[in-house]
């Protein structure tokens, strides 16, 4: 049975840590710029719904949210969060998505 060289193992670990700090890593790193969510105003929410020719309750039903939420967005009482703003922007680009969402 061979004796372990603990000092050598520790030095190897410290060298690996130093290399990682210097950017010498075998894993890929990707820098991604954080983008702000699309601005979704009350007027834009109304425009998206009007483009689809649906009422507030139907729009809410298809998005699986409360009609009061849609009403609050359209009246400017509250704003859609980042995820909802992205979803509404996608629906605005491709109105068929609303039916696909409703079918899920």
UniProtKB/TrEMBL annotation:
Residue ranges annotated for the HTH cro/C1-type domain, each copy included: 45-98
The keyword Transcription regulation belongs to this UniProt entry's keyword annotation: yes
Domain of life: Bacteria
Keyword check for Cell wall biogenesis/degradation: no
Keywords: DNA-binding, Transcription, Transcription regulation
PANTHER family, sorted: ANTITOXIN HIGA-2 (PTHR36511:SF3), MERR FAMILY BACTERIAL REGULATORY PROTEIN (PTHR36511)
Name this polypeptide is given: Transcriptional regulator
The species this protein was found in: Massilia solisilvae
